[in-house]
Design a protein that fits this description.
The structure holds two protein chains of two kinds. By secondary structure, chain A is α/β, with parallel strands linked by helices. Chain A has a single domain, classed as Cytidine Deaminase, domain 2, CATH 3.40.140.10. Helices cover 23% and strands 41% of the residues of chain A. Chain A has helices spanning 6-19, 63-75, 96-100, and strands at 2-5, 25-33, 40-49, 59-61, 79-87, 108-113, 120-127, 130-134, 136-139. An eight-stranded mixed sheet of chain A has the order 8-7-6-5-2-3-1-9. In chain A, strand 7 (120-127) and strand 8 (130-134) form a beta hairpin. The longest helix of chain A has 14 residues, at 6-19. Chain A is globular. Chain B has two helices and six strands, in the order E-H-E-H-E-E-E-E. Chain B starts with a strand and ends with a strand. Chain B is an alpha+beta fold. Chain B has one domain (2-86): Ubiquitin-like (UB roll). Classes of the chains: A alpha/beta, B alpha+beta. The A-B interface holds A 23, 25, 27, 36, 53, 55-61, 63-64, 66-67, 70, 74, 79-80, 83, 85, 87-90, 94-95, 97-98, 101-107, 109 and B 6, 8-10, 12-13, 17, 19, 56, 58, 60, 63, 65, 83, 85-92. Strand 4 (59-61) of chain A pairs antiparallel with strand 6 of chain B.
Amino acid sequence: MFKLNADHFTSIVAHLIKELPNEGCGILIGNFVGSYPYELAETKVFFPTPNEKNSALAYQIPAKSLLEADRLAEKENLEIIGVVHSHTNSDPYPSSTDVQNAFDPSWYYIIVSFRFEHPSLRAYRINNGIISEEAVVVEK
Amino acid sequence: MAVEIRLPTVLRQYANGVATVKADGETIGQLLEDLERQFPAMKGQIIGDDGKLHKFVNVYLNDDDIRYLQNLDTKVAPGDKVAILPAVAGGA
């Protein structure tokens, strides 16, 4: 299960819209609950980042951004719990590229699709190529 | 000398769940070798069979990516902090 609040949701969508027509991306910082690879993650901070690829079809988070996010997480006694990116014209489902690049089974891979009239956000865990969708809870 | 290394979540499982470990060495390469000695299950996760950093792994010495320094030969000094970070990418 993946939890975030309404402010996180709004910030995420606003950032990804701003990056259109390119894919946008960012890092999610918060707490894992349970033991590795965890049953629940609770978002505390959305950390927007640039997309190094500047592409409508691909994204890459700059390593420096990940370093900054990791330092923020350490300072706040939190963890990096996942990453969000947009699919500008495809479904909110991990692509083969997403799966090939998913190296951490504990991370939540959040995808926001702009394919439809309204942004559609879904969450996944990816472990050794196996995709499992996770429930998303948006709290007030 | 002993230098602190911050591990990404995915490697912490090989280091008894801890986020930060200490390793001994004069260079980044030596630190990583010591890391693998301390935690044998980590072998192959950071450095490939060719002796080079995996392309999906980034190593930072303080604020600098070691690929822009002397790579695994980059020297370390007391008080330095090393962070191992994954490459994060994907796309439609």
